[in-house]
Amino acid sequence: MQKLITYNSRELLDQKFAAKVAKQLRQAIETNGRASIAFSGGSTPKGFFNALSQQTLEWDKVTVTLADDRWVDVEDNDSNDKLIRENLLVNKASAATLFSLKQAGTFDQDYLSALTKQAQEQVLPLDIVVLGMGEDGHTASIFPCSEQVNEGLSTTAEPALIKVIPTTAPYERITFNFNALIGCSHLYLHIVGQSKQDVLNQAIANDNAVEMPIRAFLHNSEKTCEIIWAE
Q: Where are the domains of the chain?
């Protein structure tokens, strides 16, 4: 299921979306004593990150993580970890805890199993997930071009972190699978611009998720994905 929310400008989107997410983080803290949230990378959320970082809440009770990341050094400009640290974990949000997906170790199944266990203890189930979407319909790092697409989209797999090797994008990737992301309390897709609106329309048109992985979230019968969009 999906619900489209549109704003007249990206600046208004950033402010309104930040206030909405901050309210939900406060509610999670009030209910559970803590909150967890996963973000996607890219240039789209930078303004949103800045607005959210200035929201007043008990940031020391919030754990921030990523839906996915590229397997690059955390100081590399293509690192989502760096993006989060420089654009979100500043201002009032500097008190939040970051659960990094790129840590020391060899990127193998032992690493994934150990980090999944840590994620289960520290961030799962996620309170909020903010997804992005590529022009090919990929979301997180569940790529339609990868051999791991079915593994990433499996509805029977345990919530976990997996390794993905896309063939149409650079770098190996680490990503939460579908079940880890869909298990959140609040699910969002944050997109801007007409080109992403066109991709969204194509994604909504049918439910073949292997062709466009974002469809698994948009057409899920048990969870509403709120689409946050501005031109």
A: 2-230
Q: For the segment 83-129, what is each residue's pLDDT rounded down to a tens digit?
A: 999 999 999 999 999 999 999 999 999 999 999 999 999 999 999 99
| CB-based burial label for 183 (10 Å; 0-12, 13-18, 19+) | middle
Give the strand order in the sheet containing 2-7.
Answer: 2-7, 225-230, 186-192, 128-131, 35-39, 62-66, 97-98
Do the Cβ atoms of 218 and 180 come closer than 8 Å? no
What pTM was estimated for this model as a whole? 0.97
Q: What are phi and psi of 41, to 5 degrees?
A: -95, -155
In this prediction, residues 209-218 reach a mean pLDDT of 98
Report the interhelical angle of 46-53 vs 10-32 (nearest 10°).
50
CA dihedral sign of residues 68, 176, 7, 200: positive
Per-residue model confidence (pLDDT) at position 138: 98
At the top level of CATH, the class of 2-230 is: alpha beta
- Tokens for 163, please give them: 């390794």
